[in-house]
Every structure is written in structure tokens, then in C-alpha cells.
Amino acid sequence: MVSLKEEIGIKVPFERLLDWVNGFEEKFVKWSPYHIECQLKDKSIAKGSRVRFYEIVMGLDYDVSGTIAESKMDKDGFRFVFLSD
Fold it and tell me: Per residue in 37-62, is it b (16+ CB within 10 Å) or e — as a string?
């Protein structure tokens, strides 16, 4: 099994990050020109929800599906763990 851990630092107010999370399907596609499509199959980012995204990275197509294994969000932060199939 291969694990990829990705973290980014964004200098914006926490409320703007929450807005991004709450509009995930739309915001994910706008985040990068490489992101082509994003679908929350269950219309949710809750644990157990199904996600599919399509992107092109270094000329290679990635059509990835998986499940949200962890979803935590409160006034102090959030954490989402996605496991691909």
C-alpha cells in the first residue's frame, strides 16, 4: 500500500477555509487548472461518503474514486482523510 500525505499552508481567515469546504465540489475544480471534475456521490463530506475526482497531472489522467475515512470539523479546525479504491 502507498500512502500520500499532502498538507498545504494557506494564509486566509479560517472562515474562508470553511466556505471552501462547504462548497467542495465547485471549489475543488476551481482550485487548480488540473482539476477537471469532482463529485460527492452522497452529496456529503461525512465519514463514509463516496467521492470521485478527475484531474490531469503532468499529462496523465487520474480518475480517482474513494471513501472519506475521517471527517472532523469544528470551530477550531477540520480534518478529512480520503482513501482511494
Answer: ebebeeeebeeebebebbbeeeeeee
Distance CA 84, CA 22 (A): 21
**Distance between CA atoms of residues 49 and 71, nearest Å:** 10
Q: How many CB atoms sit inside 10 A of residue 20's CB?
A: 16
Beta strands 77-84 and 60-74 are antiparallel
Q: pLDDT digit string (tens) for 27-52?
A: 989 988 999 999 999 999 999 999 99
In the chain, the percentage of residues whose pLDDT exceeds 90 is 54
Nearest-angstrom CA–CA distance, 68 and 81:
6
